[in-house]
Design goal:
Elements: E1 27-32, E2 35-39, H1 44-55, H2 74-80, E3 85-89, H3 96-107, E4 112-116, H4 120-124, H5 126-140, E5 150-155, H6 157-171, H7 173-182, E6 183-189, H8 196-207, H9 212-225, H10 231-242, E7 250-255, H11 263-275, E8 280-285, H12 293-296, H13 298-310
Protein name: Si:dkey-5i3.5
GO molecular function, one term: serine hydrolase activity
Organism: Poecilia formosa
Length: 321
């Protein structure tokens, strides 16, 4: 990659591991590198429902033996299929403690959570990002995720990864349109939007803050040298996102001092979606930290999120976050 010969250790962004939960509140299953499935054990009511279904000889959805997700019992599969699934596309280098705060917001609301982490190489070489997106898309069309209502929460580069799924849906609408219709809402936190300069700035600030200027300059050179493999594909992704096949309500969290996001471009995007008939809400702060609005403004963040979720047709046994 020319002058982009940085150590591969700088690109290890899959920081979250499947930590044990001794409280018994949830079960964590690593599906593959970068993807972890969190689900809560059955409640008494769910257990009774499954028992009645079995007694009436109803057909339960069982996982095939080759499935990468190892669930403990068929009962969990039947119960979880009635729960909404939160797809959490995290930011680069997300640490377990930070991710847990978002995960618990949704687990406490009665949803299961699929944590999806991105590697910086998915971004630097978009063809790998597209392959990763197709892998995720296919996974969502198989048990135990088949047919479940989906809520998307994408933070920073997570918005890019979600766009790779949208690209496949846009290219093959007959095959993947049902999944787009399953998305009941989508949330974008610190979306990286604007020019290539904003993208390069994001790489510098995220990968090696002490060498931010060097990383940014090297990234811009890389984008120019491999334009047809990078910049051109980024532009295509932007167009797909602008004309997203997902038209359910959307919520954007942002701040005016975010160097990785052009507020002008973001507001134009939100207006474009509104003209397309999409219900769009937003919460913008004058000062905050990229991908850390929940930490900087916890009460306002949770209040805005709860109001948005309460407006969606999310089946849940719990009314509050």
């Amino acid at each position: 990659m020319g002058n982009l010969a940085l150590s591969t250790s700088l690109f290890r962004t899959d920081a979250t591991t499947s930590e044990p939960d001794n409280s018994g509140k949830f079960v964590a299953r690593r599906i593959c590198s970068g993807i972890i499935y969190y689900y809560t054990p059955m409640t008494a009511a769910e257990h009774q429902t499954v028992t009645l279904a079995k007694d009436s000889q109803a057909t339960l959805t069982l996982l095939p033996a080759s499935s990468p997700v190892s669930l403990e019992t068929p009962s969990h599969t039947a119960a979880s299929n009635s729960r909404p699934l939160l797809l959490f596309f995290s930011w680069l280098g997300a640490q377990p403690g930070a991710v847990a705060k978002y995960r618990d917001l949704y687990l406490d609301r009665g949803m299961d959570v699929l944590l999806i982490q991105s590697s910086v190489m998915h971004f630097l070489w978009p063809r790998w990002g597209l392959s990763y997106g197709l892998e995720i898309l296919n996974m969502l069309e198989e048990p135990p995720f088949t047919g479940r209502p989906i809520l998307v929460h994408a933070s920073s580069i997570g918005g890019y990864t979600f766009t790779q799924l949208l690209t496949h849906i846009a290219q093959h609408p007959k095959q993947h349109a049902p999944l787009a219709h399953r998305v009941i809402g989508h949330i974008y936190d610190s979306l990286v939007v604007g020019s290539l300069d904003h993208m390069a700035t994001g790489l510098g600030k995220t990968l090696v803050p002490r060498l931010e200027g060097f990383v940014k300059t090297t990234a811009m050179l890389y984008f120019r040298l491999f334009k047809s493999y990078t910049a051109d594909l980024y532009e295509n992704s932007i167009q797909v996102f602008h004309n997203s096949p997902v038209t359910s309500p959307a919520l954007f969290f942002s701040s005016e001092n975010d160097a990785m996001c052009s507020t002008t471009v973001l507001e134009k995007l939100m207006d474009l979606w509104r003209r397309r008939g999409v219900s769009v809400d937003g919460r913008k702060w004058k000062k905050s930290t990229h991908a850390a609005h929940l930490r900087c403004h916890p009460e306002e963040y949770v209040s805005t999120l709860q109001q948005f979720l309460n407006s969606l047709p999310v089946p849940s046994h719990k009314s509050n976050i």
